[in-house]
Automatic annotation (TrEMBL):
It comes from the Bacteria. This is Thioredoxin reductase (NADPH). The lineage of its organism: Bacteria, Pseudomonadati, Bacteroidota, Flavobacteriia, Flavobacteriales. The keyword Oxidoreductase applies. Residues 5-123 form the Cyclic nucleotide-binding domain. InterPro entries: cNMP-bd_dom, cNMP-bd_dom_sf, FAD/NAD-bd_sf, FAD/NAD-binding_dom, Ferredoxin-NADP_redctase_2, RmlC-like_jellyroll.
Length: 547
């Protein structure tokens, strides 16, 4: 039986791919893929083979690609660093294809696209479980270490975490690399290159998640890579527009933090928010969209014929249209010292990393929406006890019924209605949480508190230049106040498009938009529909220039 991770291309498919690459011959074993390479090439084996090797176990083969099999994983489409080595066997003949030419072939031939992308995605999952990747050494209770882990986890960067609080041979391990505990956290790659207390920007660059962006004027700049932003990226790129998508943290937005989404059409057994985001991330790049993180947008200005977007870590980005898909973030609990424990006991998402952290512990979930319910059920399979803390007397007021039923059926989940967290306490990390239930104070030995309350729109970068509602969510289309349109001459001749803001050519979709439903499905719908607005806008702009 053929392993779906290592399929063979047909003779016809191989002949098609020959037109997109160069044929090379290697008499002696030669490294054609090296650990840490960015922008690496794709290879199809004609004769001989390619050994795929874990750089930490060079005597063992992960796989050997033989006749009509091919190298690569989904990272080849995103220019991420390669996490394995590839060495030819003796007397090997290959087709070498650049990532750009590979994308052209994928766009033109659906049969090749299906075979390659299915294999790429399966390989990515298998490699994550079997290849150590980068080593991260640091304390589980360190805010700095947590920020790095959170970024790498959400961006699907392979790494092996070594908890300095639990590592018996820590001193000896550090001495091997001429390091001290004060240097932590540190990253060490398979070539033993060391980065001491790296910034998130540095990690993004060295892993290929963050790209060197060019000075072109894009047709569409999507700010935010949640479900709405990714959907807009996929549809705009698939229709031939030049698209750049950026995000301040990772693809997926709040949905990417959901352990399991079960009410999204087409996934009867559910799908994790992370998998949904990763699939959308690859799908957008398949159609030629450029995606780069992390980039935090700090401002936007309108020039003649295009927008200029100012990011914190790159040159000015230029685009004919901009889509605001920055979503909303959970608010910080109004408690003294809460900031001290963020990353060391207080968290705003619940992923597999968090589940491993809170094994056999007592944890608290604050919030009564679907995100809180999904987190409670996911973490309950790891934690000793889960307290769901809500202000309302009815947990079903804001949470889907299927989640409510499962929560009540779970033996180690207790729902505390009419409750608020009033105090968090601890030395260097969270040790106790004080909860007020009605008029009674309850002191729990909670070491992990997950909060999903009070969505706040991420619109700081828009700096009051467009019309919003009282809470800061962006008005679009017919909801825009008439006064906000008076200064725009174009709106004297036409009404704003459905998802257009009070500035022509600046659109808003998803949770950042006033009146949005705050569901994954609706965000994806808005992200796909807005592209028709963009086509209309660009067509009018072109027509105006011709006239």
């Amino acid at each position: 039986m053929i392993d779906p991770k290592f399929p063979e291309l047909t003779n016809v498919q191989v002949e098609k791919l020959k037109n997109y690459g160069e044929i090379e011959f290697y008499k002696e074993p030669t490294v054609v893929l090296d650990f840490g390479d960015q922008h690496y090439d794709f290879f199809v084996v004609l004769t001989g083979g390619i050994r795929i090797i874990d750089p930490d176990k060079k005597d063992e083969n992960i796989a050997i690609h033989t006749r009509h099999q091919f190298s690569g994983s989904s990272s080849i489409l995103s220019h991420r660093t390669v996490g394995v080595c590839g060495e030819t066997l003796a007397n090997t003949q290959l087709i070498r294809t650049s990532p750009e030419n590979l994308k052209s072939a994928i766009a033109k031939f659906s049969d090749i696209s299906d075979v390659l992308l299915n294999a790429f995605l399966l390989r990515e999952d298998a490699l994550k479980n079997n290849v150590q990747g980068i080593k991260l050494i640091g304390s589980e209770h360190s805010n700095e270490t947590y920020a790095i882990r959170d970024f790498m986890d959400k961006n699907d960067i392979w790494y092996n975490f070594i908890d300095s609080d639990k590592e018996d041979g820590l001193v000896q391990l550090l001495e091997t690399f001429n390091l001290k505990e004060s240097d932590l956290p540190v990253l060490i790659n398979s070539q033993n290159e060391i980065s001491v207390r790296p910034s998130i920007d540095e990690i993004g660059t060295c892993t290929g998640v963050r790209l060197q962006l060019d000075d072109d004027v894009y047709d569409v700049l999507v700010v935010g890579a949640g479900p709405a932003g990714l959907a807009a990226s996929v549809y705009a790129a698939s229709e031939g527009l030049k698209v750049l998508t950026i995000d301040s943290n990772s693809p997926g937005g709040q949905a990417g933090k959901s352990s399991k989404i079960e009410n999204y059409l087409g996934f009867p057994t559910g799908i994790s928010g992370r998998d949904l985001a990763n699939n959308g991330y690859i799908q957008a790049q398949k159609f030629g969209c450029t995606i780069s993180v992390p980039h935090r947008v700090e401002g936007i200005a309108r020039k003649e014929g295009y927008y200029e977007v100012n990011s914190n870590n790159t040159s000015i980005l230029k685009a004919k249209t901009v889509i605001a898909a920055t979503g909303a973030a959970y608010r910080r609990l109004p408690l003294e010292s809460i900031e001290k424990f963020e990353g060391s006991g207080v968290y705003y998402s619940a992923t597999s990393m968090h589940a491993n952290m809170c094994k056999n512990s007592e944890i608290g979930i604050v919030g009564g929406g679907n995100s809180a319910g999904q987190a409670a059920l996911f973490l309950a399979s790891h934690a000793h006890k889960v307290y769901v803390i809500i202000r309302n007397e009815d947990i079903g007021a804001k949470m889907s019924d299927y989640l409510v039923q499962r929560i009540f059926a779970c033996d180690n989940i207790e729902v505390l209605t009419g409750s608020n967290v009033v105090k968090v306490d601890g030395d260097t990390y969270l040790e106790k949480v004080e909860i007020k239930q009605n008029e009674t104070l309850v002191l729990n030995n909670i070491n992990y508190l997950f909060t999903f309350v009070g969505a706040k729109p991420c619109t700081e970068w828009l700096d009051n230049i467009i019309d919003t509602d009282a809470k800061g969510f962006v008005h679009t289309g017919l909801t825009i106040c008439d006064n906000a349109l008076n200064g725009e001459s174009v709106f004297k001749h036409r009404k704003p498009y459905t998802f257009e803001t009070s500035l022509p050519g600046l659109f808003a979709v998803g949770d950042v938009r006033s009146g949005s439903v705050k569901r994954v499905a609706s965000a994806v719908g808005e992200g796909s529909i807005v592209v028709s607005d963009i086509h209309k806008f660009l067509a009018l702009e072109t027509e105006a220039k011709i006239i």
